[in-house]
Amino acid sequence: MITNLVGNCIRELRAKRKMTQQQLADKAEIPRATLATIEKDESNPSLAAVYKIAVALDSTIDDLLETHHDRVEVTLREVMGKTESGDGAYRATTVSPLGSPTISQQLFQLDPASTYHGKPHPPGSEEYLHITQGQVVLEIAGEKTELRVGDSAHFRGNVKHSYHNTGTTQTHGIVTIVEFPDVG
Predict the structure, then answer these.
(1) Is there a contact between 123 and 133 (Cβ–Cβ < 8 Å)?
(2) Which of 7, 79, 92, 151 is the most buried (most CB within 10 A)?
């Protein structure tokens, strides 16, 4: 049995689909009285009943358990992670969800005539770099590629890499790091 957190969501989805309780109950193959008590939060429905209702609504159990405020995670700028290189020439703000085990996305600035040496990530990781202002020379395992405004690069994140701002203005960009969990 699961705690009934789904009554309001079922009612809302049923109304959006312009279904009566009887139509939904028939489609879910459950008694209408059962559906009525679930929608009123007067029961503790079984997982099987919730699953049947979700399928009948062309939805998922997760959709029925989420509240509207759970669907969006907001990270306020005051708590976003900040990173800075030792010399202060590279500064980054983490804009992805904090503590995500698989993805990190950062907005960065790199001062003119400066270099940032990236830290290699675990094997299987990928890094995506997009330049929004200025230019960089991306160096991966000794191979250099120039990127200008609007250019993007994708590379294996576990190799030695660095960003060189060879220009006279500050470079801005977005870096996204995707680390795949070890399934071995």
Answers:
(1) no
(2) 92
| Ranges assigned E (strand) in the chain | 82-84, 90-94, 103-110, 114-118, 126-133, 135-140, 143-148, 152-156, 161-165, 171-178
Q: At CA 165, angle to CA 160 and CA 166, rounded to 5?
A: 115
Tell me 169's DSSP state.
Answer: S
SS3 sequence of 27-76: HHCCCHHHHHHHHCCCCCCCHHHHHHHHHHCCCCHHHHHCCHHHHCCCCC
pTM (two decimals): 0.61
pLDDT digits (tens, 9 = 90+) for 4-48: 467 878 888 888 889 999 999 999 999 999 998 888 877 788 888
**What range does the domain containing 19 cover?**
7-71
Task: Examine the fold and report which residue of 26, 52, 71 is the final residue of a domain before the chain moves on.
Answer: 71
Domain count, the chain: 2
Whether residue 1 lies inside any domain: the answer is no
